[in-house]
Amino acid sequence: MLASGTGSTLRAVIEAAREESYGARVVGVITDVADAGALDIARSEGIPTAVVRLADFEDRDQWDAAIARTLATFDPELVLLAGFMRILGAPVLERFGGRILNTHPALLPAYPGAHGVRDALAGGAKITGCTVILVDAGVDTGPIVAQAAIEVLDDDNEDTLHARIKEVERGLVARTLGRLAREGWTVTGRSVRIGAAIPTTEESS
Ligand code: GAR
């Protein structure tokens, strides 16, 4: 799992994974921020951690390569970006592409980028929400796996709205990750279906 922030999403997945039937567990946490709350949560759970800060590398490519190398040491089946606030480059996508999930605090394709909550408010949205996507090379452009809607209240500010989104988002991420791990998934064009592939007419006849 990769995280830059407080780690409430990480905590939700850890809690869900306490159920034996969940089908997944967190094998490692990487942050790009040395004092990210996610690190404390992982350490207190005995989960291996690594800090890979962009500032410690000569350029973005070297940082990307270090993220890919560090991820590989954890040998994950799925990679979750849980509040990871940087774009991943080719070294990570080449190695883990197709099995990287991101969670975003807006109803994609509306309001992508680093300020999904702020932008939804500024855009006058009455409904926003959260989206789990499979990561591709773009910014929040990958195929949508799951979404949940949240009403924007007249007196909402960025903090109150984000807090309500996160309450729903934590559950959505934990449920979705568990289902993907247990049931697998197929991608057809931009459509993601959780579970075994449905046979086509020719295959089933
Ligand atoms: C979540 O709302 C997530 O959607 C958002 O950061 C928060 C992480 O919270 N991610 C992005 O905005 C990515 N563009 P957390 O640190 O408490 O898990």
Write the layout of secondary structure elements.
Elements: E1 2-3, H1 8-16, E2 29-31, H2 37-44, E3 49-51, H3 60-74, E4 79-81, H4 90-96, E5 100-104, H5 116-122, E6 127-134, E7 144-151, H6 158-183, E8 185-188, E9 191-194, H7 201-204
Parallel strand pairs: 1-2, 2-3, 4-5
Antiparallel strand pairs: 5-6, 6-7, 8-9
The protein binds glycinamide ribonucleotide.
Glycinamide ribonucleotide (GAR) is lined by residues 3, 5-9, 82-83, 85, 103-105, 114, 116, 166, 169.
Family: Belongs to the GART family.
Pathway: Purine metabolism; IMP biosynthesis via de novo pathway; N(2)-formyl-N(1)-(5-phospho-D-ribosyl)glycinamide from N(1)-(5-phospho-D-ribosyl)glycinamide (10-formyl THF route): step 1/1
Binding site for (6R)-10-formyltetrahydrofolate: 60, 85-88, 102
CATH topology category name of the largest domain:
Rossmann fold
| Global shape | globular
Q: How much is the radius of gyration in Å? A: 17 Å
Please tally the β strands and state the result: 9
Distance between the termini: 42 Å
* Distinct bound molecules: glycinamide ribonucleotide
Side by side, the strands of the main sheet go: 4-5-6-7
Order of helices and strands: EHEHEHEHEHEEHEEH
User: Any idea of the CATH class of the largest domain?
Assistant: Alpha Beta
Unreliable parts? none
Mean pLDDT level: 95
